[in-house]
Design goal:
The complex is a heterodimer of chains A (255) and B (262). Chain A is mainly alpha-helical and 255 residues long. Chain A has a single domain, classed as Orthogonal Bundle (MetI-like fold), CATH 1.10.3720. Helices cover 85% and strands 0% of the residues of chain A. The longest helix of chain A is centred in the middle third of the chain and has 39 residues. Chain B is of the alpha/beta class and 262 residues long. Chain B is built from 7 helices and 9 strands, in the order E-E-E-H-E-E-H-H-H-E-H-E-H-E-E-H. In chain B, the strands form 2 sheets. In chain B, strands 5-6-7-3-8-9 form a 6-stranded mixed β-sheet, with helices on both faces. Chain B has a 3-stranded antiparallel β-sheet with strand order 2-1-4, with helices on one face. Chain B starts with 14 loop residues before the first strand and ends with a helix. The N terminus of chain B is likely disordered. Classes of the chains: A mainly alpha (255), B alpha/beta (262). At the A-B interface, helix 6 and helix 7 of A face helix 2 of B.
């Protein structure tokens, strides 16, 4: 990493973080803000250290469930998108229900999920339900936007449906698929935490319990870990996207 | 440039159109009653104003579109798909494949084994003068190079009928002339049937043995002219008096075609 790269790309996001952290610390210490409303950053760090074993294992739980729900979304979501793209009537028949999945308030149906799937699988189901729609919507848009001239080219050589799907339509849709994955990754973590509010497991559970104990510092420690999890997932998707599209797509070319 | 003639190259096939008519919903009549007989190995330029239905005609010949009435016969068995090469207005390469794999695509789709198709693709790329760009991706090639790759892709199956839809229209004048010369040379050595759609009179005159001029939409044939020029042409022919005289014949027909339905 060159000095120039550091000052241009790494430094800018660090500055606001440092300013906000120091201001908050000062505000709490001077008594401008009550520490049971917003904890001093030093208290959050203390909690992170003191409660680390508990928080870390909670986060591993959440990570597990988010990844499982996310993986299910990718597999099932892209299969649904492929099916919908195969014929207009399939799309007309099923797309409204995909939208329904998107709009249903997950916090309201989470208790139902417990009844249907049991405590353990509720978290995964919740992550899945929340993250599948962006995958379906983006993959479908990508699959339907294949260049007509390229379709003609494949038709000219009597390409089979499967060959057209795997050699043309899916690769053509890849940039949109990646956009869907980026959105879905963050949502999967959110979905998992919402599920955990009901089941009491993972980071969501830890946040709930801490709140009931008025441990705002620990709530913030949990929030910090949860967002780090989301960011980590987002970065992994970015890396995959960069590797997959580096040769050809403008959004990943250059630099 | 060194050009090799592949021994298994098929001779060109005949193309026969009778009363071909295509009406799009609207209704818009794109092509109205075209009769055209093209002999095996002939190089025909189809010339007409923009949006007159030239592309529709070409798509019908390729089997990518179906006429509302009339018949098309391409080759002995009617629709000899694999023997058709098609070059679009833009290169239309697959951006995730390098040049070599783009050119190999048609063979891949008809099930030619990997080593065989890559060898044929490498050969086709060499023929269009891009031997040193085989492993490069479309995003790393210039517009002219991409069009060459597209041409190589159309040639890789050794087509007996090559269809080109204003293929070099988006290129600069110099690159365009170079590619015209290259295409002429390829045809001269291999003698596949070529149908070349263009709205450039100079391009049509330089390339074709025969020029068919269409009217404004709906497209009808207003002139079917055998160009009075030698079969083999060099770049310099463009400056000769006879070339200008032939261009004038086409120009006047185009003018009449514009007036006719104006």
């Amino acid at each position: 990493m060159s000095a120039r790269y550091f000052t241009r790309n790494v430094l800018p996001p660090i500055v606001p973080a440092v300013v906000v952290t120091l201001t908050t610390e000062l505000a709490v210490r001077r008594g401008w803000v009550q520490s049971f409303l917003i904890p001093a950053p030093s208290q959050v760090i203390e909690s992170l250290i003191r409660d680390w074993p508990e928080l870390w294992s909670a986060m591993l739980n959440t990570a597990d469930a988010s990844l499982a729900g996310f993986a299910m979304s990718i597999v099932i979501g892209s299969m649904i998108a492929i099916a919908m793209s195969s014929a207009p009537w399939v799309q007309r028949a099923f797309y409204p229900y995909a939208v329904f999945f998107q709009t249903v308030p997950i916090i309201a149906i989470a208790p139902l999920l417990v009844i249907w799937f049991g405590w353990n699988r509720t978290v995964v189901a919740s992550a899945f339900i929340v993250s599948i729609f962006p995958i379906i919507a983006n993959t479908l848009t990508g699959l339907l936007s294949t260049d007509p001239a390229l379709r003609d080219l494949f038709q000219l050589y009597d390409a089979k449906r499967l060959a057209t799907l795997f050699k043309l339509r899916l690769p053509f849709a890849l940039p949109q698929v990646m956009t869907g994955l980026r959105i879905a990754a963050g949502l999967a973590v959110i979905g998992a935490i919402v599920g955990e509010f009901i089941t009491g497991a993972g980071i969501g559970g830890a946040i709930m319990v801490s709140r009931q104990q008025n441990r705002v510092d620990k709530v913030f420690a949990g929030l910090l870990l949860a967002s780090l999890l989301g960011i980590a997932l987002f970065m992994v998707i970015n890396l995959i996207s960069r590797l997959a599209l580096r040769h050809w797509h403008a959004s990943e070319a250059g630099e | 440039m060194q050009l090799d003639v592949t021994p298994e190259a098929l001779p060109g096939i005949a193309v026969d159109l009778q009363g071909v008519r295509r009406v799009f919903p609207g209704p818009v009549t794109a092509v109205d009653g075209i009769d055209l007989h093209i002999a095996p190995g002939e190089f025909v330029a189809i010339l007409g104003p923009s949006g007159c239905g030239k592309s529709t005609l070409l798509r019908i010949i390729a089997g990518l579109d179906v006429p509302n009435s009339g018949s098309i016969q391409a080759g002995p068995d009617g629709a000899a798909h694999r023997h058709i090469g098609y070059v679009f207005q833009d290169a239309y390469l697959l951006p995730w494949r390098n040049a070599l794999n783009n050119v190999a695509l048609p063979l891949e789709l008809v099930g030619v084994p990997r080593t065989e198709r890559l060898a044929a693709a490498a050969n086709a790329i060499e023929r269009v003068g891009l031997a040193d760009a085989m492993t490069r991706y479309p995003a790393e090639l210039s517009g002219g190079m991409r069009m060459r790759v597209s041409l190589a892709r159309a040639l890789v199956t050794n087509p007996s009928l090559l269809l080109l839809d204003e293929p070099f229209a988006a290129l600069d004048e110099i690159t365009r002339q170079e590619l015209d010369e290259q295409l002429h040379q390829l045809w001269y050595e291999r003698r596949m049937t070529v149908i070349f759609v263009t709205h450039s009179i100079i391009e049509a005159t330089f390339l074709a043995q025969r020029a068919v001029v269409l009217t404004r939409r709906p497209a009808r044939v207003i002139l079917d002219h055998r160009l009075d020029l030698p079969a083999q042409r060099s770049a310099a022919i463009r400056t000769e008096a006879q070339f200008a005289q032939q261009m004038r014949v086409l120009f006047e027909a185009l003018e009449r075609g514009e007036e006719k339905s104006a």
